[in-house]
């Protein structure tokens, strides 16, 4: 894990030694990593170096404050990035508000029911802070990617560079498209592997990405069919008994943690849970039953740094799924609305026109 203050000092040293140009005031988290995941066309490790060098600092500083109040928000933000990327690519379309005139939106599709409202607010707040400093140059989809990275890092997980330069999408994903792209928690491992292979993920990626469940919570309805009417024989008996107390019925509305050993820490205990038959979803637990993934689970359970290494690779892949770059897409002035649906934005354009006209 990187201690930002130590890093700042390091960068101050380096910049004063090299005396590259003028002031290097912002921290730069985005050192090109040693591993090689091919970069999608239009993304780069230093995309905002000139246009908004403070962007990463603003996100990290603000999220430190947010997580100090409620570390649970880290899980909400990590999941938001996953849902954004899996449904029509990392284009911020998951953020679009249903009140806009689109044909439907990703938030309204059933698997999104449990995305935390607060995660959307945090992203919009970050967007406002960044745009205040730099102007409208940083996309909402990049902010979500950075927020997910910081959620992992500030929960004790690996810190890693994020390729930047995504643009925000103009189209909504229909509920059907959303449902088709987000795997269900009651899927078995072979179904999950097959679904994720179509997006370019290998079994190691799948097991590593599922490790995102080392933080956060779930509603009863996501796993109660493992308890009722008959108990999943794979599930540890004591674990099942405890879950039945939290969720006495198939449709109970309680919640429980995803990783019983260390619910708020981004560590490898999720894999230890699986080896003890204490995985919450079928999609988790079956990774330890299925022959193609069992050994990968064990390898992560015994070697946390191996998990971190593979997680970062898989996240870097995920963060580049069908990205819009260059002239495609836009940079939203409000993460919840396309610019063409954003009355405040349109009004500001009119003001600008009036001003530029009055200059002549
Ligand atoms: C592999 C297929 C996956 C399935 C089937 C799945 C399913 C789920 C479900 C059902 C929930 C609980 C929703 C609820 O009832 O509240 C959940 C929560 C969560 N998922 Fe996944 N997920 C998957 C992959 C991922 C990935 C790739 C990540 C990130 C790397 C991720 C991160 C999270 C987090 C952090 C939470 C907790 C959210 C919170 O506390 O608000 N999941 N997931
Ligand atoms: C969505 O899926 C449902 C059932 O799976 C189907 O009846 C409906 O026609 C689909 N809608 C669209 C717009 O594809
Ligand atoms: C996994 O689930 C699918 C769909 O329900 C089913 O067809 C398949 O037989 C299952 N595979 C295993 C190995 O259980
Ligand atoms: C749902 O939760 C609320 C408390 O938040 C409780 O009062 C209510 O009885 C619960 N409903 C069901 C169906 O469990
Ligand atoms: C952003 O857009 C949403 C959806 O249209 C709207 O409800 C909200 O008020 C907007 N926020 C701002 C600050 O304009
Ligand atoms: C927060 C949110 O957008 N919830 C929606 C999730 O999906 C259901 C079913 O489509 C809607 O009724 C919710 O409003």
UniProtKB/TrEMBL annotation:
Binding residues annotated for Ca(2+) 1, in chain numbering: 84, 87, 89, 91, 93, 106
Active site: 83
Signal peptide stretch: 1-26
Domain of life: Eukaryota
UniProt-listed GO biological process terms: hydrogen peroxide catabolic process; response to oxidative stress
Primary site of residence: secreted
Example of a GO MF term: heme binding
Positions of disulphide bridges: 52-134, 85-90, 140-335, 220-247
UniProt GO cellular component terms: extracellular region
Keyword annotations of the record: Calcium, Disulfide bond, Heme, Hydrogen peroxide, Iron, Metal-binding, Oxidoreductase, Peroxidase, Secreted, Signal
E.C. number(s) listed in UniProt: 1.11.1.7
Cofactor(s) this protein requires: Ca(2+); heme b
Enzyme class: oxidoreductase
Note on cofactor: Binds 2 calcium ions per subunit. Binds 1 heme b (iron(II)-protoporphyrin IX) group per subunit.
Function: Removal of H(2)O(2), oxidation of toxic reductants, biosynthesis and degradation of lignin, suberization, auxin catabolism, response to environmental stresses such as wounding, pathogen attack and oxidative stress. These functions might be dependent on each isozyme/isoform in each plant tissue.
UniProt name for this protein: Peroxidase
Gene encoding the protein: LOC107421730
